[in-house]
Amino acid sequence: MNSFTYFRAHEVAAALTEKATAPQAKFIAGGTNLTDLMKVNVEQPHHLIDIRRLPLNKIEETEENGLRLGALVTNADTAYHPLVESRYPLLAKAILAGASAQLRNMATNGGNPLQRTRCYYFYDTATACNKREPGSGCSALNGYNRIHAILGTSEHCIAVHPSDMAVALTALDAKVNVTGPQGERVIPFPEFHRLPGDTPNIDTNLSPDEIITAIDLPTKGFAENNAYLKLRDRTSYAFALVSVAAALELEGNIIKEARIALGGVAHKPWRKPEAEAQLVGKEANPENFAQVAETLLAGAQGFGHNNFKIELAKRAIVRALLQAAKMEEIS
Amino acid sequence: MEKAFFDQDNINDSLDRVDGRLKVTGKATYAAEYQLPNIAHAVLVTSTIAKGLITALDSKQAERAPGILAVISHVNSPGVPAYGSSPAMPERATLGTPLRVFHDNLVYFSGQPVAVVVADTLQRAKYAASLVKVQYEKEPHQTDLEANISRAALPANVQRDKNSRYHDYDRGNPEALNTAAVKIEATYKIPTEHHNPLEPHALIAHWEAPDKLTLYDKTQVIKGTQGNLARAFKLPIENVKVQAKFIGGAFGSGIRVWPHVMAATLAAKKVQRPVKLALPRELMFNSVGSRPETIQKLSIGATKDGRLTAITHEAIAHTSTYEEHTERTVLATRVLYACPNVRTRYRLVNLDVNTPTWMRGPGEVTGVYALESAIDELAYALRIDPLELRLRNHADSDPEKNLPWSSKSLKECYAKGAEHFGWHKRTLEPRSMRQGQFLVGYGMASSMFGVHRNNAKARAVLQADGKVIVQSATSDIGPGTGTAMTQIAADTLNISPALIRFDLGESTLPDAPGQTGSTTVSSVGSAVKVACEALKQKLLQLAVTSPHSTLYNANPADLSVADGRIFKTQNPAVSITYTEILKQNNLPQLEVTEESKPGAEWQKYSMSAFGAHFVEVHVNPITGEVRVKRVVTCAGVGKVINLKTARSQSIGGIVGGIGMALTEESVMDHRFGRYVTADFANYHVPVHADVPQIDAFFIDEHDPHVNPVGAKGLGEIAIVGVSAAIANAVFHATGKRIRNLPITPDKLI
């Protein structure tokens, strides 16, 4: 870890001004990922702007009958918030499937979607990684890639995004409110993260000089029929091999609307509108769920150690949809 | 959980851990926590290549960083006198030579310390370490066991030692396998595993004078570390002090003096200040050994009614290029079952990695996983209940040594475990049991671990206030050594445990072996017992020979002892207390030191602990996730000194076995020869959610032969066989036999 200077901002404007004077500075909120990366010299910022004290720490109802999650509300406070629990249980489940209680007590809503990949090679500075050092090469492509992507990959990067929360936010069509030197703007959550392409060093469409101020949840929360299924190498406290956020609107046994987002399979939470459309008007049953799984995984490609994820993801989708339709007990 | 306690009312009490309060209140001082004045902090720079030469090491920038005291490498190391001269390049694979830290420019494995940076703060040392630039000349490396299996060979150290137990072993006619009525053959693989105790390895090295060294180290082997450092630096042994009063787990990683210990010691010599070095978690994967990756082929032949006719067991494990680590992988196969024809083969492949080492249940864990999986496979081939098959082949005596067992309760373990588990509810066919959507599997396995015993000394000192200080240079990596020794001393002296203080963890105390191989109670416990017995005899002697004693001239045979008071058995009112004896004889204290050693009993008996594990798993049939739902374990380990700590040790062993079976695997990227799973995000030790209810039982086993205490040891046997029981349960649930651990969901879909 290198020496760094530190500035604590109390207002958004002050944080942005500080950033303008030190463009290489990093914002820090919960710090659950950044400090880890600093310890292993993956990140070596010389200046930190602490935004933890910014007044973005409330969960409030919006005028559109949705919910606004302040960027600095902790993941724990969000997951256990009565309005989140009752109206957006899918989000609560996804948050609680991630990390540990201690980490969730520190991690923030704005920080969670910004966490970096857990690719081994990204963390090991002795190996090449295009995300860490653009142009150096991708060690995972022909290396040990058990936890890597099967969808939306590029020859430059096959890393996956590790967040569980982001998978649910993608399925729920959340919106990210950001503020920067150019003012405020809104990024739909499904467009927040990027595929690696030839710039895998850029994870999101957030500009480096912008700050997330809040995440908005729309009216529709699919509170009745939803599931977050996370498959991993141990029962808790592990990143997803594959995860599925599934939400259904049912009329009897007929699907009126479906949302499916996958985690652990791509550089961003994976969602496919045509797959969801395929379920509309259909009966909720294992056969139809299996068909939609095929659509979602169309074009999936393994890199050796992660080939199993294609089949595992399909099965996980079926199980998650069965759980959302209350046709399978939750394990 | 309660029933395990109530069931054991008759064996022993359950004294709380004597150091429990210190540990939970943070007052127990671990190696890195000693506050020494002027302490400096060391951070290692480690190699990024697996094999080759350091061609340049540029530390200029690091040396200019703030707070830097020194950057030490082979270029400027103060040197270890015993290292001698560097071997010529072609013969670098010197057998049995520990890595010589900062001795030359050779790189033997990725992660090898190539420099150490010392600064006034940890942060400054860490930063400067990132500035050290090392250039290498790479050579092709080999780190892949399977790719190098053709180089598997009988270890050279075995070839040199005709008494080694690792030689090729044939009993009867192993070729009988070919004519067996029923035969199974299978290959089992376990990956490299790392111990990963909660407390990473750490030490403070302090040269108190140019020829006086004190180490505060996380070590399981206090006297061994003292001797090792004294030899390395050519110091009189009494000039080296080693302290390890508290250890946050080790599982075998603390048995050796590892390179980081030498690096810190050299750094302290160079900067002439106490130097603290604590390994970050990622270096725990390249610094303190591992369970070796092992490939095993098992073949078993049997008659149609399930009598074993032949077993062959071949094991191939990895070692480093500079040392041979051997372990008892194939030995249990020679003795666990009555089988007339047995063949074992043990081979090593040297790879460009750091040397593996003993990890809880070393050897037996690996071998019994394969053997007990194969026995299970045979049971299905025979359509015999796996427990019944084991009973039919019970070894009533040691079939290798042809000696009687000193004691053996395996049948009782089977019976008690099966009863508490409800084994009779198991249906024979795989995939035949369900609960809701889950496939249910019942599996079991036997467990064994030989009894071992080393020479050990203990001192017992009765003080004027009636307290007794008992001392031995043993250690406690978690089982509760101090607690057990306190109980043994209290029982022997017939006083309250509250009057005993047991000192351990310092090299100035009487000699004790390392805490290895489940030997501590067997060895040190015996020494404590013998020392306390001698102290009691001295007191009895004084009681009957001191003219002022109320028991003057009494016949010792007519006397009894209770609560620190010697009295006439027929007339308890005539008595004298221990402290009165001291007072009457003007003794400020009374001290004895005794040594206890194994003897001729080892030629008359074969000594081993046995046990059995029963496991229920649930498997999701769609996504292949395995959940261990409950475990019942039962062991015959001789005398159980403290039921509570024993039970904890059993539970810990089961948890380790769950990790081995389902989650733990150190994966190496062979292109770089580096572990890619070198952190707790990717090396999955079981978490609470992976661990179900575990019921641990013990058979009330009286063994007068093993040692004066009658205890066989429990640390290792607790984990031996667990992974087989789980893998067997997974087969029973799914019909899929996974022969390469860990059993992750991808292997079951």
UniProtKB/TrEMBL annotation, chain A:
Transmembrane segments: none
Alphabetized GO MF terms: FAD binding; oxidoreductase activity
UniProt KW Flavoprotein keyword: yes
Record's keyword annotation contains Flavoprotein: yes
UniProt entry keywords in alphabetical sequence: FAD, Flavoprotein
Family annotation (PROSITE patterns): FAD_PCMH (PS51387)
SUPFAM superfamilies found in the cross-reference section: CO dehydrogenase flavoprotein C-terminal domain-like (SSF55447), FAD-binding/transporter-associated domain-like (SSF56176)
Superkingdom to which the source organism belongs: Bacteria
FAD-binding PCMH-type domain residues: 1-222
PANTHER family: OXIDOREDUCTASE (PTHR42659:SF1), XANTHINE DEHYDROGENASE SUBUNIT C-RELATED (PTHR42659)
Name of the protein this chain belongs to: Xanthine dehydrogenase family protein subunit M
Protein source organism: Adhaeribacter rhizoryzae
Automatic annotation (TrEMBL), chain B:
A molecular function (GO) term: oxidoreductase activity
InterPro entries, per the entry: Ald_Oxase/Xan_DH_a/b, Ald_Oxase/Xan_DH_a/b_sf, Ald_Oxase/xanthine_DH-like, AldOxase/xan_DH_MoCoBD1, AldOxase/xan_DH_MoCoBD2, AldOxase/xan_DH_Mopterin-bd_sf
Residue ranges of domain Aldehyde oxidase/xanthine dehydrogenase a/b hammerhead in the record: 25-140
Pfam families hit by this protein: Ald_Xan_dh_C (PF01315), MoCoBD_1 (PF02738), MoCoBD_2 (PF20256)
Superkingdom of origin: Bacteria
SUPFAM superfamilies xref list: CO dehydrogenase molybdoprotein N-domain-like, Molybdenum cofactor-binding domain
Protein name (record): Xanthine dehydrogenase family protein molybdopterin-binding subunit
Annotated organism of origin: Adhaeribacter rhizoryzae
